[in-house]
């Protein structure tokens, strides 16, 4: 069963509904500042250096572009123009959420790789930092694409929240639900919402690294732990073809 819902709250249609965007898409898992691997993956997927695909495909980023890796500014310099030009879409991850709060001057715990993003951005111009803040703060928690056939959300999303806007949706899409346990690698164990999913839409997400993507009831996690020495992975949609490139090294020890 799904995690218990909060008491009933106002819920309105999501203003950034992209059902009219039919793809095809290349859906990319958590990048976490791994610019070189992202460039390699986009090349493997057929994109030009400017992020344009000759067949009109678009990239759908699953959030967590930032933190932990060696070049968060470089990743953002690549992704932001692609989104602005309409060659990509991107949802908000929990790491963008925290970076936004830090750049806005709120008190946050500077850990889990945020310290690296802040150090890297400190070497950039004030104008670039302002662009990064505006971009990350503009990202929405999930998108509904292709006439409702595809949903992307950083941590996944149960069907009843698809296309809706609420505090509960935002929390689930960004963070999921922790069980309070940790796996052998030290990652928090999340409530296995996908095991109970029976929705019509395919749901693609990241957030919790997996060694191998596995389909579960029409959902797929595409975070294969690139920043931890794994791989950066994309799913070609609607073909359901996985494309991965290896990490150059372990960039961040968990």
Automatic annotation (TrEMBL):
Residues 91-96 form the Serine/threonine specific protein phosphatases domain. GO terms for molecular function: phosphatase activity. It comes from Saccharothrix carnea. It comes from the Bacteria. GO terms for cellular component: cytoplasm. Residues 1-23 are annotated as: Disordered. Pfam families: Metallophos. Residues 1-13 have a biased composition (Pro residues). This is Calcineurin-like phosphoesterase family protein. Residues 14-23 have a biased composition (Basic and acidic residues).
